[in-house]
Design the sequence.
């Protein structure tokens, strides 16, 4: 019965983090990746490596922000009382690393599984966006 609360808290945060992730990646790509104009050759490595590195750094920052949102939720609902433990647990859950000896109370364990599912989706989106950004960065100019 109490797992219903896990879904009530977890699903909205899952939707929010996915929406935020997509929005931020679209913004990063618009700001950092530009198609070359007037050329028919592929961009050189130095021309696109810096924007892609910044997108990679942005991805790490996004994942950290999203893990922090989950950690805040754990503290808010009382699943983990200490913010430091909450962020460590969250980073372990969202990356599916899972080696920290921190456990949620029995009634909140499904919430941790929902976060792990969220992490798999977010990392899949990150991979897709990075792959697409590389394709755009390396695309020949269209005249």
Sequence:
């Amino acid at each position: 019965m109490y797992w219903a609360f896990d879904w009530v808290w977890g699903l909205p945060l899952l939707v929010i983090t996915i929406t935020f992730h997509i929005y931020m990646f679209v913004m990063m790509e618009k700001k950092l990746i530009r198609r070359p104009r007037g050329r028919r050759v592929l961009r050189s490595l130095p021309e696109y490596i810096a924007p892609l590195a910044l997108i990679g750094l942005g991805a790490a920052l996004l994942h950290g922000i999203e893990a922090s949102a989950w950690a805040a939720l754990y503290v808010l609902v009382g699943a983990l009382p200490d913010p430091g433990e909450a962020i460590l647990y969250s980073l372990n859950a969202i990356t599916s690393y899972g080696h920290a000896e921190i456990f949620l109370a029995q009634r909140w364990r499904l919430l941790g599984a929902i976060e792990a599912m969220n992490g798999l989706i977010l990392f899949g989106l990150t991979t897709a966006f990075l792959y697409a950004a590389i394709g755009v960065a390396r695309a020949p100019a269209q005249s």
User: Anything to note?
Assistant: The helical segments are 3-32, 45-77, 83-94, 109-138. The chain has a mean pLDDT of 87. Residues 2 and 107 are 6 Å apart (CA to CA).
